[in-house]
Amino acid sequence: MFTNLIRLKIILLLVVLFNSSLVQAANPSESFTEYVHQGDPYPPVLFQSNIEGDSFTEKLKSYGAFKSVDTDAMGSPIGIIVMKGLRMKADATSFSSLMLSAGTLGLIPVVSNKSFKVQYGVFVQGDLLSTFDYEMTSTDVENMWSGPRTSEMKPAEELFLENSLSLFLNDLAKDRKAQELFREYYTYFDR
Amino acid sequence: MRYLIIALALLLAGCEVAPVKDASSVQVATKLDNSLTLPVAAPLAYYISREDLQREVYGADGYSRWKFYPGPLFKKAAEIVYPDFFSVAGPLAEDQPFRYLVKLSSEAGYSNLWGTFKVTVTASYLDRQGSEVFKTTTDASVTGANLWQEAYTSIYAEALKESTHRFLNHMAGLNNDLQQPISDEERQTADFDKLLGEMKPAGNGTGFFINSTGQLLTAAHVVNECLKTEVRYHGQNYPANRVAVSRVLDLAVLQADLQPARFASIPANASDDVALGQSVFVTGYPLGSIMADYPSLTMGNISSLGGLKGALANLQFSAPVQPGNSGGPLIDYNGNAVGVVTSSLNQSMMLAKTGTTSQNVNFAVSAEYMRRFLDHSHVQYRYQPLKKSLETASDAAVKFTVQILCYQ
């Protein structure tokens, strides 16, 4: 009976840890303003990213923020690099969930919080000028015996990625260093 | 037993190292003096040596299985922590005002037994005369972090914040000039030799005189990261200050305190610029650390009036260039500087993309954009072509081409 009591306390502790970390990981609700470009377009840029497909690049072009967005213009003095990444958070949710799952030989799935991050970098002549980071927490429910998800994006992450473009362009409009760079470009090159 | 399980659970629950966004989220042992109002008005500059920035740390007792590069994270932590304490804070530079300079050095390590990242940071605070006013050493470590980048950033931030608290508390107990506003003297460029001791050049490039007042044209990337820049002319080193920089064009004008015997002629308009196939040569100081103290000369021709796709200001030439030629003049046989050498095609990229390497695909900023930059910066230049002769042109070129030394 004493052993069963200890077992019950351990399970309760794991459940408490699991829930507290899950609540902490919940994304705060953010107000989102769709970007609308004002004034003349920014200079042409070299664009590189690790995002598969063309839809992301086309979405960026659709804002009309840049004179051109070219993935082959290696000689452009200004470049934008976008990287997306997913990593598991080593927090109480994953630990407690893993313990519960292991205790049931994988019958209970593993729940883990993952950090989905999108980073935009603005470069001039190869030197980093400014970075803009956007992050969301994504919760995954996976079987203990299968490998973790590494590359496929969930619908919420795809939406976050798409919305991050607006966030980036809004932040870019307020970034003093980038705006000075764009003004300098048009000092020497025609609009 | 129950307490062991609880302790283990809490320990593992705290394994997640959250990314550090600002100093307020970092916990340290020393409490800040209550009398201090943050940020303090005193401006601060910080300096991390090149060796520290390029340090590598190995895990697993010398095996390269784990290799970390904590240097840039040390710099990132300084960028996060100091602005919260000082109204003006930035890396030591010609235009960075400061009342106090903090010279930072660190030792970074990793223990693969428990997966512990650790750093020891020594901060030496100097006044503008180079006298040490305070020195402290702080340690920080974290175990079990998921990402080494976030681990090192967070422990460097912790060590720097702890050292800053100790410094501010010490100064608050003394003369407390921390709240006095920035003075004009603090905005002047300080004597870096006095502050940092004798420095050796971290890199070199080439430049060329463009008028009789000692102004030189070079590539911006040769001088962008330099704390101090010198020009080597007739066997002597002269300090040189940045007068104008264009990051977009990768051009810079420096002012040296000397009057050169010769300066380059720059074409006055497009009709004087080079044509496709025209013969040109390059003078410069390639491979400065191993070559003799005399300019080299290589010959080629204009391969294209354009550069890579998207490079509107460049032309392509075939005269061989090496690291150290950057910023040097591209010269025609009338002795005119028709371009500024800036880059070569990246061989690794060519090999990866095409399976073959390129030969003598080199780029320079064209004379048209040199003129736009100099006109916009109100820098004088002159068009004085010589009689067309390689010997005459090269003889003049070696007189106005100089080596540029960059100290970091």
How would you describe this structure to a colleague?
The complex is a heterodimer of chains A (191) and B (408). Chain A has 191 residues and is of the alpha/beta class. Chain A has one domain. Chain A contains 5 helices and 5 strands, in the order H-E-H-E-E-H-E-E-H-H. In chain A, strand 1, helix 2 and strand 2 form a beta-alpha-beta unit. Chain A is elongated. Chain B is of the alpha+beta class. Chain B folds into 2 domains: 15-189, 3-Layer(aba) Sandwich (Rossmann fold); 203-407, Beta Barrel (Thrombin, subunit H), CATH 2.40.10. Classes of the chains: A alpha/beta (191), B alpha+beta (408). The A-B interface holds A 6, 9-10, 13-14, 17, 21, 44, 46, 70, 72-78, 87-92, 95-96, 124-127, 181, 184-185, 187-189 and B 1-2, 5-6, 9, 12-13, 15-16, 144-147, 220-221, 224, 246-250, 307-314, 369, 372-373, 376.
Name the descriptors.
heterodimer, A: 191 residues, alpha/beta, five-stranded mixed beta sheet, 5 helices, 5 strands, B: 408 residues, alpha+beta, Rossmann fold, Thrombin, subunit H, 2 domains, six-stranded antiparallel barrel, six-stranded antiparallel beta barrel, 30% strand, globular, signal (chain A)
